[in-house]
Amino acid sequence: MDGFLFIDKPIGLTSHDVVSRIKRKFKLDKVGHTGTLDPFASGLLILCLGKATKLAYLFSELDKSYEGTIVFGKHYDTYDTTGKVLKHDDKSLHEAEIKDAMASFMPGYHQVPPMYSALKIDGQKLYDLARKGEEVDREARFVSIERFDMTSPFQGQTCDFLTEVSKGTYIRSLAVDLAAKLGTYAALSKLRRLSVGPFHVRDAKMMDSVMLDDLLSLDVYFRETPSIELNDYMIKLVKNGIYLDERQIITEKPFIVKDHNQNMIAYYTPCDEHLYRPVVIF
Known about the structure:
The chain is of the alpha+beta class. About 20% of the residues lie in helices and about 35% in strands. The protein folds into three domains: about 5-60 and about 200-215, Pseudouridine synthase (2-Layer Sandwich); about 65-195, Pseudouridine synthase (2-Layer Sandwich), CATH 3.30.2350; about 220-280, PUA domain (Archaeosine Trna-guanine Transglycosylase, Chain: A, domain 4). It has helices at about 15-25, 55-60, 95-105, 125-130, 170-180, 220, 230-240; strands at about 5-10, 30-35, 40-50, 65-70, 75, 85-90, 110, 120, 125, 140-150, 160-165, 185-195, 200, 215, 225-230, 245, 255-260, 265-270, 275-280. A hairpin with an 8-residue loop joins strand 5 and strand 6.
């Protein structure tokens, strides 16, 4: 029961809802997800089961891709059309200028996270503060935008888009920032996550149809990861969580420790120069 499940999350459920349902469906104690997907959004949600819950961070560094729909002319408190309208205008836009503005966000820009997000400031989630009517300063951070294309004709103040972005990019903020560059307002009316790194939603399953046979096991996930083989004495120490050093290996990359039968014993990652800590003991 240790590995990853790839779920095509439906609209209307939180990421936590999906985790809870999978726990109940398979009677599991340890299930987590690798990155929140908004309730109004659908698409790829990667779940970690069992010992894989300690590996969720491996996915947070990966680029992501999304498709969705932007509606211009209104500013919502949530940056999507599920929220409350705060401002509106009737500025006339042209398809060519929107495409030019989209292109200007590449290869990246400094983005301010939205208040309605799971980001924590001083230990508090921003959306908890937003629901109380509070707004706090958020530091802008650089995000990479590899692609931001219009994928439908611009009609009725609406267009579809496809974007490929780095970790930590908020697509709702991207839509709002696009509109600001055009001197108007906008929000997302649809959002679907297509991929996380090499993993794509076309390979995901709906919750009703997913089975444990669909689990990507840790053996398969780590089969291309470098490994070292240690003797029985060291394997006992590894199972007790010992740190390794240059006496066993010198590397800048994570690696797997195996015994003489090629069984995976632990996953290690560098934590200091020539010092390696165990992340998961299998």
